[in-house]
Design goal:
four-stranded antiparallel β-sheet, 2 domains, six-stranded antiparallel β-sheet, 2 helices, about 15% helix, mainly beta, disordered N terminus, Jelly Rolls
Length: about 200
C-alpha cells in the first residue's frame, strides 16, 4: 500500500510538471514576474540620466542600498533605461504592469512617473532608429515616512508595451516628469530602488 501511494504521488507530480512545461499560459500565470531590475541594471542614456546613489541602514554590519536618484528638475527631467528579454512563457497578448519601487527623504508630495517600452522584433526593428512607444504615466504619493518604499503601478496593454512578445528583447525607459505640475516633491530626489514587470 505504501509503495502504491508513493507511486501515485510520483505520477501526480510528473503530470503537473509536464502540464506546466507544455502549457505556457499555466506557467506564466504561476510566475507573474516577467522581468525585474535593480539600480545596477540601469543602462543610462547619453544625457539627462538618473544618478546612482547609496545609503546605509541601521543593521550590523550596515547594509548598503543602491538607488537611482531622480532630481527635481524644472526642465531637464531625468531618465533610466533597462534592457531584458521577454520570457518565452509569456503569451504575447496579456496586459502587464510595471511596478516602480521608490522612496524619498520627504514625507509629503507626489511624483509623476512616465514609462515607455521599445520592443525589437526579429528581423524587423532597426536598433539605430527604433523609437520608444507612447509613454504611460501615473502620479504616486511618497510614503508616509522617510526611507519607506512606495510601490507605484503603471498598467499597460500588450500594444502599449510596444507589443513586446515572447523571447523578444525590449527596453524599458523610466522618467521622472518633475516638470509636470502634478509632481510636487519639490527640492527632493525620488530614489528608485527597483522595477518589476509583471502580468496584470
Amino acid at each position: 500500500m505504501r509503495i502504491a501511494k508513493q507511486l501515485g504521488g510520483f505520477l501526480l507530480r510528473s503530470v503537473i510538471v509536464v502540464a506546466l512545461l507544455i502549457s505556457p499560459t499555466i506557467w506564466a500565470a504561476s510566475l507573474d514576474t516577467l522581468a525585474s531590475f535593480t539600480a545596477l541594471s540601469n543602462v543610462p542614456p547619453a544625457t539627462r540620466f538618473a544618478t546612482v546613489d547609496t545609503y546605509v541602514d541601521g543593521s550590523t554590519p550596515t547594509q548598503t542600498w543602491l538607488v537611482l536618484d531622480f532630481g527635481d528638475e524644472a526642465t531637464n527631467t531625468e531618465f533610466a533605461d533597462f534592457v531584458a528579454i521577454m520570457p518565452g512563457q509569456y503569451d504575447g497578448s496579456s496586459a502587464i504592469e510595471v511596478v516602480l519601487l521608490w522612496s524619498s527623504d520627504a514625507t509629503t508630495g507626489n511624483v509623476k512617473w512616465d514609462v515607455a517600452f521599445k520592443s525589437l522584433t526579429d528581423d524587423a526593428d532597426d536598433t539605430d532608429s527604433k523609437a520608444f512607444a507612447t509613454i504611460q504615466s501615473t502620479t504616486c504619493t511618497t510614503a508616509s515616512a522617510a526611507g519607506e518604499i512606495d510601490y507605484c503601478v503603471i498598467d499597460f496593454t500588450f500594444a502599449q508595451a510596444d507589443s513586446a512578445g515572447p523571447n523578444e528583447q525590449f527596453a524599458l525607459r523610466v522618467e521622472r516628469d518633475s516638470a509636470d505640475a502634478g509632481d510636487t516633491l519639490t527640492a527632493n530626489d525620488a530614489e528608485l530602488h527597483a522595477v518589476e514587470v509583471r502580468l496584470n
